[in-house]
Every structure is written in C-alpha cells, then in structure tokens.
Amino acid sequence: MQVQSLMGAKAFLAVMVAWITAQAFKVIRGFIVEKRFNFKYFLLAGGMPSSHSAVVMALSTAAGIYEGFDSIIFLVTLVFSIITMFDAAGVRRAVGRQAVLLNKIIDELYEGGQVKEERLKALLGHTPFEVFAGAVWGVIVGLIVCH
Questions:
Q1: Which residues lie closer than 8 Å to 81 by C-beta, 6 or more apart?
Q2: Rounded to 5 degrees, what are φ and ψ at 127?
Q3: What is the 3-state secondary structure (H, E, C) of the chain?
Q4: Which of 82, 29, 23, 57 is nearest to 136 (CA)?
C-alpha cells in the first residue's frame, strides 16, 4: 500500500513540476523579450512551452513507468494527452486567431465611434512547436521525477 501511495505522490509531483516549470519558462521568456518582469505569464494559458502538453505528457510518462507502457492506463493517459495537445494546437489556436481578428474589427469600429472598446483574450492556443516543446518537457520531467 505504501509503494502505491509513493508512486502516486511521485506522479503528482511530476505533473506539478511540469506545470510550474513550463509556466516559469513563460515568465523568463517574457522577461527576455519585454525586458521587464511580468508575473501574468505564469497565470495565462498559451505561449511557449505549452504547459497543457507538459502536464499531460508528464502524467502519461508516470503512468507508463509505474503501470507499464503496455498497460491500459498508459493507453488511456496517452489518448487523453493526444486529445489535449490537439485541442491546444488546433481548436484553442483557432479561437486565439479569431480573437486577434475580432480585436482588429473592434479597433476599427471603436475609432469610428460606433462601439465601445472591449478587447478579447487572443493568447489562448499554441503553435505546433509550442505543443511539441511542452510534450518533450513533460516527458523529461516525468522521467526525472518518476525514475
């Protein structure tokens, strides 16, 4: 019983480390690009690397290590991971692009005095590279924490 709880604790730790470090990378990247510290990057979705991908792949890696890479639980977590990453790069990315376009329309209407300005959140999804980077990071964290 104690071995199972230790494995669960390590899997949870892998997931948390993957999320925290992926979000911290975004803060660091924001600092490098903007030359100022902005904590908002730690709390926002989107950006490099994908914390969604890092988290789900850390979970899949932990499941594979502890339950076996030929187990049904690994398969379930892997399918869950693929769906999550597809969503992050596909649907959410499309919504982010639509937000950018709608913000341009709002800007044009606002300048004409026809509508009050209200901005939409455009940084929602991820590029395929951001998803891939997050997935690789999640596997690395999962291997380090769980092995």
A1: 53, 56, 57, 59, 60, 135
A2: -75, 160
A3: CHHHHHHHHHHHHHHHHHHHHHHHHHHHHHHHHHCCCCCHHHHCCCCCCCHHHHHHHHHHHHHHHHHCCCCHHHHHHHHHHHHHHHHHHCHHHHHHHHHHHHHHHHHHHHHCCCCCCCCCCCCCCCCHHHHHHHHHHHHHHHHHHHC
A4: 57
What's the CA gap between 19 and 3, in Å, rounded? 24
Torsion of CA 15, 17, 18, 24, to 10 degrees: 140
Kindly give the interhelix angle for 91-111 and 72-89, rounded to the nearest 10 degrees. Answer: 20
The tens digit of pLDDT for each residue in 17-58 reads: 999 999 998 888 888 888 887 777 777 777 788 888 999 999
Side-chain-side CA neighbours of residue 28 (13 Å): 8
- pTM of the prediction? 0.72
